[in-house]
Amino acid sequence: MGLSWLKMFGVEMRVVLVYFMYFCVPSLGRSEITDPSQVAALQAIKASFIDPSNNLISWNRGDPCKSMWIGIKCFNTSSSDNFLHIQQVQLMNLNLSGKLAPEFGQLVHLEILDVMWNNISGSIPKEMGNLKSLVTLLLNGNQLSGSLPDELGYLFNLNRLQIDENEISGPLPNSFKNLINMQHLHMNNNSISGQIPPDICRLPKLVHFLLDNNNLSGHLAPEFSESKTLLIIQLDNNNFIGSSIPSSYGKIKTLVKLDEYS
Ligand SMILES: *[C@@H]1O[C@H](CO)[C@@H](O)[C@H](O)[C@H]1NC(C)=O
Ligand SMILES: *[C@@H]1O[C@H](CO)[C@@H](O)[C@H](O)[C@H]1NC(C)=O
Ligand SMILES: *[C@@H]1O[C@H](CO)[C@@H](O)[C@H](O)[C@H]1NC(C)=O
Ligand SMILES: *[C@@H]1O[C@H](CO)[C@@H](O)[C@H](O)[C@H]1NC(C)=O
Ligand SMILES: *[C@@H]1O[C@H](CO)[C@@H](O)[C@H](O)[C@H]1NC(C)=O
pTM to 2 decimals? Predict the structure, then answer.
């Protein structure tokens, strides 16, 4: 009597335990897949690229975080929503052409986005302004055109922005003054025009400011001389007024390289 009651109790405990593990500790079962909205975004991103060398063939199978899609790195642990999230997209030098899909903006946990040295054309999608965790954005060495979206100026965690060697035109957005963590701003060899917004000179952590070989005009902002962090300024081959660098630039104590301009 007593024994079978204990047995029944044991069985029931096991059932309760299984229920508990299934519903209350989801990391043991349900969580080991990538957030479906991020999977859909990657599929749209692939569809928007032209990939003549089939370098993205691994993106046709399984789950991005579990099946080792080339160039994809994920956070190891699932987050509070019980899905895995994409941390990095690194697709450098894969002979990709086509365009950057607006769906990049759905990879909301992304910290590193690197598509440098490909042949990607079209414009920079303004949706990239959704990537609030982004620290590194490398788009250099492509054929990107159009102007820089204002939205990039609201990526407060961005530390490195490389857009050099593209065909970007239009002005430097004023919103870039908000990039308070920016250290490396590389935008040389484009067709960027207009004046350098003076507030950009006050970015508190700026180390490299490369804007040579563009179509900038107006006067060079004397504000640069207040920087305590700048190591390299390159502004040669633009259309600035005047023929010499403001003498105040000589006061920038940290400076190791200042290119001439004409
Ligand atoms: C790069 O793509 C072009 C076609 O767009 C192709 O002709 C060429 O062979 C590819 N290069 C490599 C290294 O796969
Ligand atoms: C994630 O995995 C890497 C190695 O694959 C390891 O070095 C790192 O500590 C892990 N991070 C966490 C939070 O588990
Ligand atoms: C891709 O760009 C490289 C230079 O970056 C160039 O040599 C190559 O011909 C381009 N390929 C295509 C298919 O446009
Ligand atoms: C930038 O443009 C200049 C002038 O056309 C050219 O001499 C230089 O090689 C370019 N730099 C790079 C890194 O392509
Ligand atoms: C540079 O800007 C001037 C106007 O300031 C324009 O006339 C010229 O076409 C631009 N050049 C290039 C290469 O974009």
Answer: 0.84
